[in-house]
Amino acid sequence: MSKESEVFRRYIERNNLKMTKQRELILETFLFSRGHVSAEELYQTLIEKDPAIGLATVYRTLSLLCDAGLAQQRHFGDGQTRYEHDFEQGHHDHLICVNCGKIQEFFHPHIETLLEQVVADHNFTIQNHRVELYGLCPDCQK
Amino acid sequence: MSKESEVFRRYIERNNLKMTKQRELILETFLFSRGHVSAEELYQTLIEKDPAIGLATVYRTLSLLCDAGLAQQRHFGDGQTRYEHDFEQGHHDHLICVNCGKIQEFFHPHIETLLEQVVADHNFTIQNHRVELYGLCPDCQK
DNA sequence: GTGGATGCAAACGATTTGCAAGCAT
DNA sequence: ATGCTTGCAAATCGTTTGCATCCAC
């Protein structure tokens, strides 16, 4: 039983919700999928394991996972919402290939520090931030 | 006649398109609106000047302005696409208030330099980037 | 048994598209 | 006259919601 599964169970219990086999399957599949999945992509993977599962359930469960702190929404240029689960490994930013869609994560402590400074200079209190670089990945530069 | 209007006319001509009073009105209104407008917001302003104008035309013209290099799409958290026209004044990033929606622009040369370095380190060729900080603006911190 | 969870289909909001009519060239 | 552009309505896409049924507690 994974740590995330434990966290989710506690969240479920604390809020008087119920653990179902769909929720278990969705969490498991979500955790297994590396990177940044959209609801639709996750759904496509899920129907192979449970053809009866509904897209609405995927959306509802992803929303639950966000509330539980196990997932985080991300919006990159295309119209879709993507969900990330490995953000706990520590904050990171993204390099996105505009050709193949590959997403490369990176972390640069100095940039983070400077961003904090910008926020302070403008008297904002920060909640979160995003830094996204769009371009061509090494493979797509031809 | 503004510089942008000139650029637009050239673009129209070069692509064998036609200049219409709707396109003129939309460009003019778009340029006048400071900041980051959504198609719907622009449309609301426009129907006061020309009640017959269609929302589809607004979308089509904004798309044209993007192609002509006079506008740029931006996606902030909410579901709407926003259009920016003053990005030519030089690149800048955004501080967004999650409470009142105010958008404060800023520019920090050192951050830009570091981002270029990150891109180089990963062998990407950059096209553009965005840095967005979400939090509470001074007014909303109560 | 009861209330939350499901799958489906319908509803939704933002954006796009097909079409007949209008207007710039 | 030609064909790009318009406004309208219908279509589309991603996401949410209503509802009857189902299932975890």
From TrEMBL, chains A, B:
Record-listed Fe cation binding positions: 91, 93, 112, 129
Binding site for Zn(2+): 97, 100, 137, 140
Membrane spanning stretches: none
Cofactor: binding details: Binds 1 zinc ion per subunit. Binds 1 Mn(2+) or Fe(2+) ion per subunit.
Biological process according to GO: negative regulation of DNA-templated transcription; negative regulation of siderophore biosynthetic process
Subcellular location as annotated: Cytoplasm
GO molecular function: DNA-binding transcription factor activity; transcription cis-regulatory region binding; zinc ion binding
SUPFAM superfamilies found in the cross-reference section: Winged helix' DNA-binding domain
Cofactor: Zn(2+); Mn(2+); Fe(2+)
Keyword Zinc belongs to the record: yes
GO terms under cellular component: cytosol
InterPro entries in UniProt: FUR (IPR002481), Fur_C (IPR043135), WH-like_DNA-bd_sf (IPR036388), WH_DNA-bd_sf (IPR036390)
Main location: cytoplasm
Keyword set, alphabetical order: Cytoplasm, DNA-binding, Iron, Metal-binding, Repressor, Transcription, Transcription regulation, Zinc
Pfam families: FUR
The keyword Cytoplasm is annotated on this UniProt entry: yes
PANTHER family per the UniProt record, alphabetical: FERRIC UPTAKE REGULATION PROTEIN, ZINC UPTAKE REGULATION PROTEIN
Subunit structure: Homodimer.
Family, similarity comment: Belongs to the Fur family.
The protein's name in its UniProt record: Ferric uptake regulation protein
